[in-house]
Amino acid sequence: MDELKQRMLSQAIVGEGDMIRVDMFLNHCMDMDLMERLGSALAKRFKGEKITKVLTAESSGIALACFTARALGVPVTVVEQDGFDLLDAMLGRKQPERTLYVKQ
């Protein structure tokens, strides 16, 4: 999505270890209009598919999952992580396989 690309180019900060920080509009201080447009754009990619639920890990992606689910007209389920180190994943560090748990 061009809007996200432009926001990242103009507002993102490159932090320690070359990590791109987008806290100011995606994580800690969310631009809800942007999140809604991103959710709608993501939902469009699944147009015509039989989607019954959006599943996301317990992480910063919960808001996007909620807007995507809303655009699809389905519920969202947040699953717990078993020792998942998000920072390592973002930096591409090799990790052992992790299990995500869905509460019944």
Task: Produce a short descriptive summary.
The protein has 104 residues and is α+β, with helices and mostly antiparallel strands. The protein contains four helices and five strands, in the order H-E-E-H-E-H-E-H-E. The chain has a three-stranded mixed sheet. A two-stranded antiparallel sheet has the order 1-2.
Task: Describe the fold and architecture.
By secondary structure, the protein is an alpha+beta fold. The protein has a single domain (2-101), classed as Rossmann fold (3-Layer(aba) Sandwich). 38% of the residues lie in helices and 15% in strands. The protein has four helices and five strands. The chain has a three-stranded mixed beta sheet. The chain has a two-stranded antiparallel ribbon with strand order 1-2. Helix 2 (32-44) packs across helix 3 (62-72). The longest helix has 13 residues, at 32-44.
Write the layout of secondary structure elements.
Layout (H helix, E strand, L loop, with lengths): L1 H10 L1 E2 L5 E2 L10 H13 L9 E4 L4 H11 L3 E6 L4 H5 L9 E2 L3
Search tags:
single chain, 104 residues, alpha+beta, Rossmann fold, 3-stranded mixed sheet, two-stranded antiparallel sheet, 38% helix, 15% strand
Query: Portion of residues in helices?
Result: 25-40%
Question: Which class in CATH terms?
Answer: Alpha Beta
Structurally, how many domains make up the residues?
1
> In this structure, how is the largest beta sheet organized?
3 strands, mixed
First CA to last CA: what distance? 35 Å
Strand content: 15-25%
Mean pLDDT score? 77
Beta strands, count: 5
Shape: globular
Count helical runs: 4
Order of helices and strands: HEEHEHEHE
Low-confidence stretches are: none
The largest sheet has its strands arranged as 3-4-5
For the record, the CATH architecture stands as 3-Layer(aba) Sandwich
